[in-house]
Amino acid sequence: MATLKVSATLKIPPHVPSPEEDSEQLRKAFQGYRAVLLWTLDSAQRDAFLVNEATKRLSSNNWVIMEIASTRSSIDLLNAKQAYQARFKRSIEEDVAYHTSGDLRKLLVPLVGTFRYEGDEVNTTLAKSEAKLLHEKIAEKAYNHDDLIRIITTRSKAQLNATLNHYNNDFGNVIDKDLETNLEDEYLKLLKATIQCLTYPEKYFEELLRMAINKTGTDEWALTRVVTTRAEVDLQRIAEEYQRRNSIPLDRAIANDVSGDYKSMLLALLGHDD
Amino acid sequence: MATLKVSATLKIPPHVPSPEEDSEQLRKAFQGYRAVLLWTLDSAQRDAFLVNEATKRLSSNNWVIMEIASTRSSIDLLNAKQAYQARFKRSIEEDVAYHTSGDLRKLLVPLVGTFRYEGDEVNTTLAKSEAKLLHEKIAEKAYNHDDLIRIITTRSKAQLNATLNHYNNDFGNVIDKDLETNLEDEYLKLLKATIQCLTYPEKYFEELLRMAINKTGTDEWALTRVVTTRAEVDLQRIAEEYQRRNSIPLDRAIANDVSGDYKSMLLALLGHDD
């Protein structure tokens, strides 16, 4: 018979942590685990997971849905849809539509639905006429107008960019500025962010990181999401944008703000070898 | 130097055709050519071509858009979208959205946009609650209600089928019957046909063929479209449906109604070797 030999591995630490310290440490360990979990998924599975979380009642987040629908390439979004169906046995479209209502649904459903054209051909006549249409609707404060939503959710990014340049040239303001009238309105904020994601995603992600890091108590979920999903896409450009706007390198800002394994994980994704 | 030798190949026919007979013969030859042209395309290119025609002002046809969006598998619809972009340098979604407005747009845009789940899992609780929701909206004549459109355009065909069975069981009428109130309304007709395409496509195509053949002067365009696009999919089941409903085999009905090369072409697609 073997004798069970128990060695004392449990040691009372020199400083006994309070329950608050304990839970704080657990929370940090869990965040790192979360980040790692996200990172172990391939990008399609990761997006599928994020959208699914975002359509659940308790973790509902229209911004994550918008961000994934607007910043992924058409084929990456399609891959996420297929990963979603394989895992959840439903479509992204039905879950997003079911989860939302009113103007938010009106914006988000075609945004996730459209398999956007990605060529760089631009129809200048159309860009001019649709810039005019956008300007009219915004002047009328008809921010949820069918045609405004149609233009934002279905036109190619190149075409939309041309349209917004005409908007700026012909009407004297960037569209962003004209949409800043009522930023208490959830729909209007999301619409503005959608346009930014479609035409200038690095700027959108820079702002998101800035808010996440500057918050009292870092918003780790947003930080993790941006770093893990953009690491192999445009995180370098986002970091440049961050430094330009905040006069501190992104890695240093993150290092100042978080700690432990979580910090090591994020810095590794930012390209630090150690 | 070679001498050009001209032999008289132009002969006056024994019966000189009238201009009407001439144009009738040209028309028939052209129809055959059209059918052949459609048939030479692969199915994705064919659907792309049909949708593009349907979004042009002069050949506008919301039914063709609805039919393609509703009766193709998700992957076939995706292939059509890719063929469309390769050929027209725009997306199906933007052209459909641009071409339509009001309720028709509200129905057609998510219909073409959704990458529908195709598994056969059914959520019975959801089917019951959505059957109730559909019944309420239809009772209120709110045929363009957001939730009604959401259910029709995003749920899987299996789920929608379960929902409509609950509708029938719980409220005593098939949904078709309850939608028959005002068939002058273009939107309502299209909504009804959409439901049929999603749940019982052979029946939809049978009706389309019946109308096309019974019309004074066959509607060759519809006839060609159904025969060329369904030949390798479900034309056999459509033919069975046709015979059950009309007491005449589909091939005989077509043979009675058209002639020439066009007739040979259609019969060949129906499986006649000669």
From TrEMBL, chains A, B:
Ca(2+) 1 binds at I213, K215, G217. A pair of annexin repeats may form one binding site for calcium and phospholipid. It comes from the Eukaryota. Pfam families: Annexin. This is Annexin. Ca(2+) 2 binds at A255, D257. GO terms for biological process: response to cold; response to heat; response to salt stress; response to water deprivation. GO terms for molecular function: calcium ion binding; calcium-dependent phospholipid binding; phosphatidylserine binding. Belongs to the annexin family. Keywords: Annexin, Calcium, Calcium/phospholipid-binding, Metal-binding, Repeat. GO terms for cellular component: cytoplasm; plasma membrane. SMART domains: ANX. PROSITE patterns: ANNEXIN_1, ANNEXIN_2.
